[in-house]
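Q: What changes when NAP is included in the input?
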Amino acid sequence: MAEHRKSARSASRQKAEKAHQTEALSFDFVIVGATGDLTMRKLLPAFYQRFRHGQIAATTKIIGVARSDLTVDAYRQRTVEAFREFIAPEDYDEAQATAFLQLVYYVPLDMSDKEADWNPLASQLGTEKERSRVFYVATAPRLYAQTADAIAHNGLITDTTRIVLEKPIGTDLASATAINDGVGRHFREDQIFRIDHYLGKQTVQNILALRFANPILERLWNADSIAHVRITAAETVGVGKRGPYYDTAGALRDMVQNHLLQVLSVLAMEPPPSLSATDLRDEKLKILRALRPMTHHMVHRDTVRAQYGAGMVGGKAVPGYLEDLGSDASSTETYLAIRAEIRTARWAGVPFYIRTGKRMARKETTIVVQFRPQPWAIFEGPIEPGELTIRLQPDEGVSLSLASKYPSEEGFRLKEADLNVNYAEAFKTRYPDSYEDLLMAAVRGDQVLFIRRDEVEAAWQWIEPILDGWAADARPLETYPAGSWGPESAEKLLERDGFSWKEKNQ
Ligand SMILES: NC(=O)c1ccc[n+]([C@@H]2O[C@H](COP(=O)([O-])OP(=O)(O)OC[C@H]3O[C@@H](n4cnc5c(N)ncnc54)[C@H](OP(=O)(O)O)[C@@H]3O)[C@@H](O)[C@H]2O)c1
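A: The predicted holo structure follows.
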């Protein structure tokens, strides 16, 4: 009987999930910044995928807006060219792409021109009360508030209108507050969707499943069992064409203030009462607020910053940052390592180490949770403490290292062996790009994967003293050879606590 109820429940859940996945939504989606890199490389390909999977109705309109004087046909042609460049051949279907293009429109408009005529855009938008309308602002952040002003001034905000803001929200607390105030003058907080595309990653969302659907892990998820946590986001690429932008930002603003603090807060938060946007974001916020504020002394002791020099990446000689930038001098960090602490009962005494860098030895985003060692050993020789490794990308998966008896007749020798799950192999399914999830969530009005105003501001509050500390620090910026794992001092940061960045079995 119980089995019967269980299978009926599971069948109805599968049916509900299928309906959720295949429901075709009809909406108006305005992309401001429609000729830019993000739109062409990520947003339009993501919409194409959702269309191909039956989630977007033929009555939907995706309306590109930018200053460039393009016809709708010319914009559709650019879209096709972007598809050919950025969509994997196995995911691309010419007939589906042609059908999708019929939903794509273009209106030239300048967001900084107060006199601009918005009627051509307004006349494209549906008037049904229920129809979801989204403005996705994919321009430089200095245009966010102006864009919100213009949308409001032209009377285009309905009850079901949302605005999506790309990162970065500001370059410090004051500029973030100014953007939030400017947009907040016209849009309610439940209409504002701040993107952090890391939250759109299936593997970041999977941290919730790992922790809160597996009591075997959650019961160990605290300072009693965990010695430390290491978060690494390493890229092999340099700054490329983004040099002029990157030089004004650096790794702390570009990666930590948003993506890596979000990962850290999902890793460390208390179980929320539900998966609602409010409950989840309340818990993440508590972690951001519980980060121990950095004094100048702590910045000096607990952070490392460096810039890549020339080196070898993937067997190829590559130039250093200054040469990439075309400049003689820059104090922008392309690498950093930070030792952070969370002031809660769950995490007292557990360091969280964060490192990120460009031109590193390997592309990977991983979280390593190291468990405390066995307090009393009956075996001879050292036992490596167990580690749970969560691979966010590439090779998405999770592994747990276990001390095991090495098969031999010569006594009891221990060696590490891994329990390893590769999600692509386990589920035999394609990994959707993070923007696919995020765009459709914005259309549905579901804020769970977006950042609330107080989270952005709390993150800046923790980041700002680090920026100030670095500005006051007389030490010269360190360098590291391209293709390495960063400067020696980053290893020393962990050695001091008896830990290492080095993976086991290395
Ligand atoms: N590219 C990425 O991978 C990426 C990743 C994460 C976040 N972001 C963020 O997303 C935003 C866009 O990045 P992007 O790389 O796509 O930049 P981009 O390539 O420079 O594109 C900027 C877009 O804004 C338009 N634009 C500029 N001024 C305008 C104005 N006054 N009125 C209307 N449109 C205007 C440009 O077109 P016209 O010149 O034709 O007006 C272009 O379409 C930035 O905030 C960036 O930080 C980008």
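Observations recorded in class: The chain has two domains: 2-166, 199-495.
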